[in-house]
Specification:
The complex is a heterodimer of chains A (78) and B (241). Chain A contains no helices and eight strands. By secondary structure, chain A is mostly beta strands. Chain A has a single domain (2-77), classed as Beta Barrel (OB fold (Dihydrolipoamide Acetyltransferase, E2P)). In chain A, a hairpin with a 2-residue loop joins strand 4 (34-40) and strand 5 (43-48). Chain B has a single domain, classed as 2-Layer Sandwich (BirA Bifunctional Protein, domain 2). Helix content of chain B is 34%, strand content 30%. In chain B, helix 3 packs across helix 5 (193-211). The longest helix of chain B is centred in the last third of the chain and has 19 residues, at 193-211. Chain B is globular and about 45 Å long. Chain B starts with a strand and ends with a strand. The chains are: A mainly beta (78), B alpha+beta (241). The A-B interface holds A 8-13, 19-20, 32, 34, 37, 39-46, 48 and B 48-50, 74-77, 99-106, 131, 143-149.
Chain lengths: 78, 241
Amino acid sequence: MRNIILPELGEGIEKATVSYWFVKEGDRVNLKDDLVEITTDKAAFNIPAPCSGILTQIILHEGDTVRIGEILGVIEED
Amino acid sequence: MEIRVFNLGITDFENVWKLQRDLVVQAENAIIPFNLVVCQHYPVFTCGRKTDVNTILATEKKAREEGIRVYVIERGGDITYHGPGQVTVYPVFDLRFLKKDLHWFLRSLEEVALELLVEFGARGERKTGMTGAWFGACKFASIGIAVKNWITFHGMSINVKRDDLRNFQLIKPCGMDIEMTCLENILGLNLKIDEIKRIVVRKIGELISQGITRPGLLWQYEQRAPYYVSLSGSIRMTVGQ
């Protein structure tokens, strides 16, 4: 199992908003595929898949607030 | 160190959107970390991630009557207008060579617009929580970016010509009730788009040369993958060391 975590986005940025999931639960993803996009201020930031596998769980959904280091979802790694 | 600059003149939005995505792929594949597209657009409305569906539908109706196309795109922010009286810049930059800091990059773009005004002896300002560059209560530069694997695309449009502000009245720019202005109105001058382009490109070059944090890595990067891929219309601008 591999957690998808919101990385540091810059100084003073503590949270962002989940704006778009490119895949849905149960979908297969490959390493570096577009996975989820978050927005802060006027920037949309794309988080790529950290590994290949199946996206088993979306924890934070579109419109949710996510804090730095928080888990957005889970991939069952190959 | 070099930035590859694409000075494209008045260009269809869709072509430039595609070019940016191609440049992102090139940057991802370690071909070139700094690309700058500078252009004007035929009139177009673009909707960012914050634009709600009702706004998109209402804008499409109005835009159709005016013969203006609407694009829903992957940048941050809300709706805006692009036209031939603006200078629009799209920095496709790998932030791993600058700062991995989204807000730093947004503030840097604002700085470029504010410095541009200073060149003409005027002073603009930022407004907290309202990204962009302002002159008094009016906005003259709009910003919205997307970032993929720390590579930026989309960017900033600076209103230059006074005869290209009318189409902003068809929308609520950035989703707000704000008034847009332009450099010609602020300065009381008639300006040439090419002159503004030259200053903006120079200012962005200065930003890059001040911000580079990993020159060693960049050197390895270039050694591993020389990037002299030719694309028509590009020039190279040397910055920094």
